[in-house]
Amino acid sequence: MNGIHDLxxxxxxxPIVREENEPVFHAEWEGRIMGMTLAxxxxxxxxxxxxxxxxxxxxxxxYLTSDYYTHWLHTAEELMIQKGIITRAELEAKRxxxxxxxxxxx
Amino acid sequence: MAGQGHDHGxxxxxxxxxxxxxxxxxxxxxxxxxxxxxxxxxxxDPAAVDAVIDQYETKIGPRNGARVVxxxxxxxxFKRRLLENASEAMKEVGVSGLQGxxxxxxxxxxxxxxLVVCTLCSCYPWPVLGLPPNWYKSAxxxxxxxxxPRGVLDEFGTKLGDGxxxxxxxxxxxxxxxxLPERPAxxxxxxxxxxxxxxxxxxxxxxxxxLSPE
Lengths: 106, 214
What we know:
The complex is a heterodimer of chains A (106) and B (214). Chain A is 59% helix and 0% strand. Chain A has 106 residues and is mainly alpha-helical. Chain A has helices at 28-42, 48-56, 60-65, 68-82, 88-105. Chain B has 214 residues and is of the alpha/beta class. Chain B has a two-stranded parallel ribbon with strand order 1-4. A two-stranded parallel sheet of chain B has the order 2-3. Chain B is globular, with a radius of gyration of 20 Å. At the A-B interface, helix 1, helix 2, helix 4 and helix 5 of A face helix 1, helix 2, helix 7 and helix 8 of B.
């Protein structure tokens, strides 16, 4: 499908920003979602084409304004919900539980 | 241990200091919730996630590609096999795996300079280069390198003669490309291990040349 992911030849994105001695992951969660996606891929939760298609279906503004591993996170969440592995309600309940636990610790 | 540092360099400006009471980023919380939910359901072993992170932080990276390139520079028969069937030849150097199942190696010469992009996402030959740097995944590189490759090369400090043909290769869902940079002058007496030290990640993407021996 065409869409915002099809960036080849577009103009106006500005200079290429490089980082010296860039780490493999910039935050712990990036590694966790990468590892989780590969581990669940290996278990057959989904295949690589489904992952690519789900990323391409992201909201175009969200796609351009979020980082690479945020795309991975979006895709893992949405595919697992679509496939009935988890529900959105379960995910939201777990987020609320963790947020509350974090808040009470600080 | 992988990814345990308390480093919030995640590209977002939270507008306040980095003390230990800082709330997690939205992504950090979402990832934690997803992992926790899968573990609760017995669908995921966190050790499997740890293992993947460790692989990509410590074992799979551009040093693998550098060994492939150095072997190709040192051994013409290996180079021929590499250009004919890269995925098979790479196994001789012990390099294979996810996102490298269908590899194509592109040889840079005095007349032709190849460089690689994935305009549609961020396809990258993981077994030889590891995970891609942010700039490779960014909109500026993906959009512009196919329209103005010489301008992009210039940004990387790479100058080509006017007579050199530039070929830009756009990775697709299956094929992963690796550039075989030109062997630098003055390396005739170097062995494979020394040659590999001259092979940078950027030279295997095609945005730079291999280093010259000092």
